[in-house]
Amino acid sequence: MRTQELIVILLGILVVIALGGVLYLARSIILPFVVALFLAYLLDPIVRLLTRLRVPRPIAVCAALLTTFVFLALMGTLIYASAQSFAKEYPKYEPKLRLLIATVVTRLELAPPDWQMADLGKKLASATVAKALLASLGSFVAFLGNLLLIFLFMVFILLGQHRLPARIQRAFGPEQAQRILRVLEDITRQVQAYLGTKALISLVTGVLVNLVLTLLGVDFAILWGALAFTLNFIPHIGSPIAALPPVLLAILQFDTLVPAAWAAVSIAAINVVLGGLIEPRLMGWHLNLSPLLVILSLLFWGWLWGIPGMVLAVPIMATLKIICENLKPLRAVSLLMSGD
């Protein structure tokens, strides 16, 4: 038995390595499919609601896809416009930024940076800002270039989703199909609850961060709200990272540290209340992923698929944990993935 168990473990390791190689080599196809699958989970309740209102399913799918496209287009336009505005306003912040870096370097006895503020200002002021931004976000732009493929996958997933139970019935017979469908329904319900709640909490977080920074007079409040919305999908480290740029900008923008302190306290309070109190109550349960597992998944999926992989890392791990919870042979894996 020990020899057989060792063989099984070694085969499992080989399968994981081979699967990682396949995910890396076929990322141009698998990544759009995974994104489309998660978006389809988010949009499926909308499609079901429209079909219950006797809207034909193809029209309901088109309406859901149009909503997604408009949202992504607005986000892209917002980020691009904010980047251009920051490039124009950078000379206003440069003197205080230079003084702040010099103070930090002196007090911590660090080596001065190789690059100069003036060089950064010239690059930002040049006409190649958009090219530099796109080059620095190469993997993300490549991901957006697959937007058409994502929408094609979403069309077929949403149009064929309601036929899945009948196909399972024909393939496995009544009794086994009923058990499979029960497990699939539990998995679908929990995944939709997680993704839907996370998207709602992230949206509210972004709106509140934008509102607070606008009231404090911090520049580019809309951009920081969009950043808070995006990074809120990454637990433990996403929200603190999203809070750093607006707080730093508030330090550079104002002559006193009071607005920066208010910004830091307000953003922290928003994240604690929404993420720590309201989110578990809305879901009715807590995902409870291990923080170490979250960090490792961010590193792994970020290495595998770049920036989109880091955004998708935690939803993928959450989905795997939910699947393991609903399958008896894999419940031990689910317990190992938990943070308790």
How far apart the termini lie comes to 31 Å
Largest sheet: none
| Beta strands, count | 0
Strand content: under 5%
Please, what is the average pLDDT?
Answer: 79
Tally of DSSP helical segments: 15
Radius of gyration: 23 Å
User: Which assembly state applies to the chains in this document?
Assistant: single chain
Question: Uncertain runs with pLDDT below 50, 5 residues or more?
Answer: 126-130, 132-139
Overview features:
single chain; mainly alpha; 15 helices; 0% strand
Description:
This protein has 340 residues and is an all-alpha fold. The chain has a domain at 12-96 and 139-172. It has 15 helices and no strands. The chain has helices spanning 2-25, 27-52, 57-108, 117-125, 129-136, 138-145, 147-160, 164-172, 174-216, 221-231, 238-253, 258-283, 291-305, 307-326, 331-337. The longest helix has 52 residues, at 57-108. It starts with a helix and ends with a helix.
